[in-house]
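Protocol step 4 of 6: structure prediction from sequence.
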Amino acid sequence: MKYDAEQKYHSVVRAFRKLEGLAIDIGKTVIVGDHVAADAAESFFIECYHLKDWLKKDFRIKNPKDVERAISNSPSLSIAADLCNSFKHAWQATSSIRKSTRENQHGI
């Protein structure tokens, strides 16, 4: 299988647009607390996480470790990865989510 990260990126954009549309629509046709928004958020983070794997396998990426390094060095991307893993493992809290949340609460 040929991994072209552009294809997966477009999936991420579509998932984001769906999530964004739901956020804009809240209170009109989407009901607060409805599963549709939660499902869209989960799908977005899963697509983002899969993009990482596709980037690592994309023929244009010379060093796949650079992808991991970029994610590890980005607090936002690390949280997204932790969220995706928590979905996969039935919401087990990970140390990165706890640490990041603690840092945000204390303004670090």
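Step 5 (inspection) to follow. The mean pLDDT is 80.
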